[in-house]
Design brief:
CATH architecture of chain A: Beta Barrel
Number of helices of chain B: 10
Order of helices and strands of chain B: HEHEHEHEHHEHEHEHEH
CATH superfamily of chain A: Porin
Number of helices of chain A: 3
Distance between the termini of chain B: 78 Å
CATH topology of chain A: Porin
Number of domains of chain A: 1
Strand order of the largest sheet of chain A: 1-2-3-5-6-7-8-9-10-11-12-13-14-15-16-17
Structural class of chain A: alpha+beta
Radius of gyration of chain A: 31 Å
Strand content of chain A: over 45%
CATH architecture of the largest domain in chain B: 3-Layer(aba) Sandwich
Oligomer: heterodimer
Helix content of chain A: 10-25%
Distance between the termini of chain A: 90 Å
Helix content of chain B: 40-55%
CATH class of the largest domain in chain B: Alpha Beta
Chain lengths: 443, 300
């Protein structure tokens, strides 16, 4: 009895143990089979996915970066080829001690779009951006600002350009109407500026931003160091050019940029560029009594941008420093209001430096100093707005902005303007909102 | 005699050199660089545009990245608009036609797996959401299996001379990977059903894989920093051990998760979202080892 009982217990124990071992073995076996099945399943799914992807890629007219979505329903509707559309709303309220209507910078009559904002509440413009790939070799971009001025809405074509996407050897070409690649801030859209207005040298020498009809060729060197070289020819119909000289090839430019990283936290971009603009009767200064210039304008710009973020983690904390130096020479004839025509070399210089710091997400603060100076231009100009100012001109600006998301921004800016007829305290509130597709921002 | 020797010597010198890195890979995130190395071994040189300590949604289109894209044979990114704030600029500026979308040098990893939470009805009221689905697909190793197979085929297509090597690399990786998955799944069994609060919706694939239950996010609206009101709401919801972990990625500020942890007693964890996120997560294998170890540790 006892023997058989012991035997039975033994027998039971062994059964339990072997069962356990067996169960483990079969478990592993089952898992193996499962893995094999999974793999087979994957292979067929991959094949299927690849096929779908290929189809999606073929039928996709999405703009750069848009993903071909597997499982996206095929549609024969024309709307499948709709371009990316984004709209940017900008507006501000500016307050001045001195009337901005009398604003003039002695020695530097502004042209183009440059100049102070209107006093009081004002909707700047609603900017409509439309872009899409044309086909496998071209992409297109259109910017149409709707400007509301004195209660009337006007539509203009700011940018309208085509760019190649498939040139070999690191080349690309852009043609149409576009912002020149010279000077760091020249081709930045106003909504991405760190201050509400452009630094003084951009206002004085480029009319805020040099925009014209032209063609650009750009090359990126096949090196680890970023090297970009570019050349442009423009019609020469906009400030600082005028009159579409040389049968409509009035200005040309060259630019070179280099850049890289320094450890994980730092990155930088340095550049030099030159614009040669030819003018026939280019107006500047007061609208009702402009000064006309005919001749050549040479502008050389050197710039440096440095960005810092701990670990390169931009979202949490970052700092951007940028500076630019401008040398500008107008060589030719000035026709002053009232008749006298004077020939001269007008040598001018401008500079700015600014820092913007984001201490934590959403908030940024910034400071900027900008200035202009020029050589004496000759006795004939002594009573005119072209005469060199007694002192070098300066402005000091502070700003703080808050962004609820990348698509909304509210900004306060204070500027102490010592470049105008009298020292002026200026402060403004600005809003920038963006709906729809919003393209990525460049460095 | 001597001249024959010279001929022989020069013939030897003219023989193909031992295989050098033949495929220049630009990865948007470290996990894809790591995967490319698993498959390509020394036939590839990889560069990752981001590190695990950087939020891949917010990267500056830096000059150095443009230079890297200019020289790349293939650009591998998560896709699903994760990199929409910077990759399009890199591609536009780099003037490298062989990596433009639509060409075989452009590879969007997440488009080869089933993306979660894709939605046709998007509104920015919902914050930084991705209409094409959640792009953080690398947190499920089964997704890696799928992507590895397609990627190996793509690499072979781009570098036909080493096609066989990539196939061998893939086979070798797959064997080790499948085995690792079995181990991870066995090991992580106790995690099933654990309730998890995440900073951002970065972990939905891991949650599905390990059968974790996501009960809340620290971000009330994806992409926007955690708001105080939302966080105090979470305190009252979870103060009685209503969740098991609070998880954040290394690039996210620890303040919100630590704050909630102090008030609820739920342990706050920093989990590597990708390779390099912690000292231990040096490759794809140790990444998942480490994620599971940390979760197990915290659940005891």
């Amino acid at each position: 009895m006892s023997v058989s009982l012991r035997g039975c217990i033994l027998c039971m124990l062994t059964t339990i143990f072997t069962d356990n071992a067996l169960a483990q073995n079969t478990d592993i076996e089952a898992l193996r089979v499962e893995v094999a099945e999974l793999r087979q399943d994957y292979e067929s799914r991959i094949a299927e996915l690849e096929q779908r992807l290929e189809m999606a890629e073929r039928s996709s007219s999405a703009a750069l970066g848009a993903a071909p979505a597997p499982g996206g329903r095929n549609t024969s509707a024309n709307s499948a080829f709709n371009p990316a559309i984004g709209i940017i709303f900008q507006g501000q309220a500016w307050n001045y001690d001195n009337d901005p209507k009398n604003h003039i910078v002695q020695g530097f009559p502004f042209g183009g779009e440059a100049g102070p904002f209107d006093e009081g509440l004002a909707t700047g413009e609603a900017e409509i951006n439309i872009s899409a790939n044309v086909d496998d070799k071209f992409t297109a971009w259109l910017t149409v600002p709707v400007v509301i001025e004195d209660g009337e809405a006007g539509v203009e074509i700011e940018e309208a350009w085509i760019e190649t996407t498939a040139l070999p050897g690191g080349f690309s070409s852009r043609f149409g109407r576009f912002f020149s690649g010279i000077a760091y801030l020249n081709n930045k859209h106003a909504h991405s500026w760190d201050f509400a207005d452009q630094p003084l040298p951009y206002q004085a020498f480029l009319g805020d931003q040099y925009l014209d009809d032209g063609v650009q060729l750009r090359w990126i060197a096949p090196t680890d160091l970023y090297i970009e070289l570019g050349a442009e020819v423009f019609r020469g119909s906009r400030f600082p050019a005028a009159g579409a000289e040389r049968s409509g090839y009035g200005s040309n430019s060259l630019f070179a940029n280099i850049g890289g990283d320094f450890a994980r936290d730092h990155s930088w971009l340095a550049g030099i560029s030159h614009l040669k603009a030819r003018s026939f009767e280019r107006p500047s200064g007061a609208n009702d009594a402009p000064i006309l210039f005919s001749g050549n304008t040479d502008t050389t710009i050197a710039q440096f941008v440095w960005k810092w973020a701990p670990n390169g983690n931009w979202k949490q904390r970052n700092l951007v420093f940028q500076t630019g130096l401008f040398w500008n020479t107008d060589q030719g004839e000035y026709t002053l209001p009232g008749g006298p025509v004077l020939t001269t070399d007008n040598d001018q210089r401008g500079w700015y430096a600014q820092t913007v710091y984001q201490p934590f997400p959403r908030w940024r603060v910034g400071a900027r100093v900008d200035g202009l100076s020029k050589d004496s231009i000759g006795n004939g100009f002594s009573d005119s707005v072209l005469a060199a100012p007694a002192d070098d001109l300066r402005r000091y600006s502070l700003m703080a902005d808050w962004s609820n998301s990348e698509f909304s921004r509210l900004r306060f800016q204070y500027t102490r303007d010592e470049a105008g007829p009298g020292n002026d305290n200026q402060w403004g509130l600005q809003y920038i909102f963006s709906i729809g597709a919003h393209g990525a921002h460049s460095f | 005699m001597l001249s024959r020797k010279i001929v022989t010597l020069s013939l030897i010198l003219l023989l193909p050199m031992p295989a050098q890195a033949e495929l220049d890979i630009f990865a948007c995130e470290p996990e894809w660089a790591a995967l490319a190395v698993e498959i390509g071994q020394d036939h590839v040189t990889t560069y990752s545009a981001t590190t695990a300590l950087q939020d891949p949604h917010y990267i500056q289109a830096r000059p150095s990245l443009i230079a890297k894209v200019r020289n790349a044979d293939i650009v591998i990114c998560s896709g699903a608009q994760l990199e929409i704030g910077w990759l399009p600029v890199l591609l536009q500026k780099a003037n490298n036609r062989s990596v433009m979308p639509g060409s075989s040098g452009y590879f969007e990893a997440s488009s080869f797996v089933e993306r979660r939470d894709a939605t046709a009805n998007v509104d920015r009221v919902q914050g930084d959401i991705h209409p094409l689905g959640n792009p953080h697909v690398q947190t499920d190793p089964h997704n890696i299996t799928l992507i590895a197979a397609v990627l190996a085929r793509r690499m072979a297509e781009l570098d036909t001379a080493n096609a066989q090597a990539y196939q061998i690399g893939l086979d070798d990786f797959s064997v080790r990977w499948d085995e690792a998955i079995i181990n991870w799944e066995a090991k992580s069994a106790p995690l099933k059903g654990k309730r998890i609060i995440t900073h951002h919706k970065s972990w939905v694939y891991l949650e599905r894989w390990l059968e974790l239950v996501e009960v809340a996010n620290l971000e009330a609206i994806p992409g926007l920093p955690p708001a105080a009101g939302h966080l105090s709401g979470l305190v009252s919801r979870f103060e009685n051990q209503g969740a098991d972990f609070i998880v954040r990625s290394p690039y996210q500020s620890a303040r919100a998760s630590n704050w909630l942890s102090e008030r609820t007693g739920i342990s706050a964890l920093e989990l590597p979202l990708t390779v390099g996120g912690t000292d231990e997560a040096t490759d794809l294998f140790s990444l998942f080892d480490h994620i599971i170890d940390r979760l197990l540790e915290a659940s005891q």
